[in-house]
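A reminder from the course coordinator: this example appears on the midterm review sheet, so study it carefully.

Given structure:
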């Protein structure tokens, strides 16, 4: 199976953390290349944050968005119950 490069919308729809394989698709690189970049410390120098969880690695998606120059997802805002229901919030 050949992985394809991800579209901008696909990248922006990613969850908070992704695998190195998904990062490879985001960057249009092979997974072995991304693993090599990680081992050499190059991903961290580029600002792409990778955390080790046991034997697995997880990439912080917001750091990938920053590297690619994509806008971060808009944060959710909390509204009072009155506003959410359309009433006056006191």
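Designed residues:
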């Amino acid at each position: 199976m050949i992985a394809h490069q991800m579209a901008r919308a696909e990248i922006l729809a990613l969850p908070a953390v992704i695998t190195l394989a998904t990062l490879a698709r985001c960057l249009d690189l092979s997974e072995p290349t991304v693993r090599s970049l990680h081992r050499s410390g190059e991903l961290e120098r580029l600002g792409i944050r990778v955390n080790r969880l046991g034997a697995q690695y997880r990439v912080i998606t917001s750091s990938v968005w920053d590297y690619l120059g994509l806008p971060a997802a808009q944060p959710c805002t909390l509204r009072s119950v009155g506003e959410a229901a359309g009433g006056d919030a006191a």
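Helices lie at 8-12, 20-27, 31-40, 42-45, 61-68, 81-84. The domain at 8-84 is CATH 1.10.10 (Arc Repressor Mutant, subunit A).
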